Amino acid sequence: MKQLRRLLPYLRIHRRAYLLGLAIVVLATACGAVTPPLVGYAVDRLRQGQTKTFILAVSGAIALAALLRAGLLFVSRYLILAASRRLEFDLRNDLFAHLETLSSRWFDTNATGEITSRAINDIEGVRTMIGIGVMAIVSTGLLFLVSMVIMFATSPFLAALFVLPLIGISVVMAWTGGKMHDHSMAVQAQLGVLSSRAQENFSGSRVVRAFVQEDNEIERTARNTGPGTSDWPAGARGPGRRS
Q1: What predicted TM-score, i.e. pTM, was given to this entire model?
Q2: What are 227's strand-pairing partners?
Q3: Which CATH code is given to the segment(s) 1-154?
Q4: 76 neighbors 135 (Cβ within 8 angstroms)
């Protein structure tokens, strides 16, 4: 959470686009939530012998809600993703400005590839989180809450039966969430190592070829950055790797 708080100044700059985009996400979620009740209402009326005109009217309402939801989602994605791109631009500029103020000793103790990986891959991950990630959290969370309200209003008993397994799922998600975080950190670390290896080999390609060290460098890179290293999850295996 401490790291997320560092993004607040950037989010404030683009708060209008985010707030408007999230408000439209709420409307789009509401349009998606009305479809199941409409279908249930139509089924109940069909049992009572409703006419073809009624079916066409309900079908038109469902289609209209779906089209409206699609249009609202398009607008919300445009607003939020565009804002996340601008925020990413601000982050990269500030990071570069900060790197320019650091001493040469700092650059001597930190690999160039690691710095490059953080400037590219890590910031890209931040943009994904504050872009499509925020949209997914708001949309999915709101849809879940609305669905729970409708389910309990329709049949409390069946809704309770549905909720009970969610307790176990929540425990599993809490456990796997920590594992996924550890694996993600390991992947980010390996990206930094891979970037460092690539930078060293590209900049020193003439030296590598002069001493005929191509095969050794390929093996060293595969050994230090591929599955099987201490930072990789156990059992992970990349393309071309054999057990």
Answers
A1: 0.70
A2: 229
A3: 1.20.1560.10
A4: yes
Residues 113, 194: contact at Cβ < 8 Å? yes
Structure tokens at 28: 């789009």
Q: What share of the chain is helix, strand, coil (3-state, %, to 5)?
A: 85, 0, 15
Q: Would you state the structure tokens that stand for residue 86, as one six-digit string?
A: 């601008």
End-to-end CA distance of the chain: 39
* 224 Cβ contact partners less than 8 Å away, ≥ 6 residues apart: 193, 197
What is the number of residues in the chain?
243
Any idea where the domains of the chain sit in the sequence?
A: 1-154, 157-233
The tens digit of pLDDT for each residue in 140-181 reads: 888 888 888 888 888 888 888 888 888 888 788 888 877 887
CB 18 within 8 Å of CB 86:
no
Residue whose tokens read 């809450």: 145
Q: Is the pLDDT at 189 greater than 90, yes or no?
A: no
